[in-house]
Amino acid sequence: MSGTNGFAAAGWPASYRLVDVARLSVIVALVGLLYSPTVASVGLIAAYVAFLASGEALVRMRRVVSSPSVYWGLAFLGVVIVGVAYGSASWPERWTDVLKWRTVLWFILLFALFDDERWKMRLLIAFLIGTGVGLIASYAGAVGGVTLWKPPRELLRNHSTQAMSFSVAALIAIWMVVLGRCEGHKRWVAIGAAGLFVGNVFFVGHSPSGYAVFVLGIIVLVLRYGTPKHMIAAAVVLPVSVGAVLFLSPGMQKRLAQVQYEWEHAGESPKLTSMGLRKVFYTHTIEVVAQHPVLGVGTGGFKNAYAEEIEGKYSPSDWRSVITGDPHNQYLAIMVQHGLVGLAVFIAWLVAVSRNPAGPSAYHGLALAILCGWCATSLFSSHFRTFAEGHLVTTFLGVLLARSASSQDDHVVSPT
Asked: Are 246 and 199 in contact, with CB atoms under 8 Å apart?
């Protein structure tokens, strides 16, 4: 048996207790990501320290390093580190950019750490509780008129983080119901919670990222766990449901119309807009990619390359002259700094993660549902390496896809 029985088990060596400390720290970090960067950082650091101090780090890492999702992740980190050697960015900028990809290392750590299914469920339940607190507060502000510390749609860091987190929470609750992970009254609590989370995403949050994570996630869950009849029903019900929600949610209609308008009028808009800025970024980023297609401009070199590309094209007072270090598209950002080689390795890692054969099959569908949402939203943001969203997705992927103790070839033997 590879898992531990927690702190209550007498006679367990320190290494087992430290593994549990590391897992508990991961849960603290996950909930902290929703509300407090400080709490999240403490949890992240504590997890690394406890894992390294447990004495099991090398054994566990050797056990997982042959997994494609691990060695492709390491390969991508290698590409990023090699990129430090070339380019025009200052050395602090290069290493700062390397640090942003610590989310991939975090995935590998959790992939090696969460081989006990009880801890997988504990993490999922803790996330539901953490988001549930924000959900109650959000409805209290939006419906009950309660004055809160922030607007109801962005209590969790910002409106995108909140909507994406609530969508993931809804997917987790639905997954628990479908797979029978909750019975009796708990089943109805999970169904009700899923409905409330979805309602908040579509009627309070108004974030396209939240919409994408939930809709794509539901499609994946149906394809992964549904029967042919379920798939046919979903093909009818899902479009009707989305249409009904769009009809009933003026906020959603307004937000989608705003996105379309800002994108179409980016060229002549007198003021900076969210989608207009992205369109300008994409246009010039693609031009940079065309100049450095194979290896890119090097790690941390995006800002300098972008500044050179737009130099003299706009007046200083024009909002289009804004210089950025992030084009708000994960794939374009990788191509600029690491070229097509870097993008190919990154996509290979995503494919390896999505096809991960080692973890418990019951969790694979949920992990894939979350991953698909992040892949879509990363067309408009760098959601695999931003602090909150990047650590959220790699936490779920690492925990859910970690192989269970029973499937290990060489597992740690617990004391008798």
From this structure: no
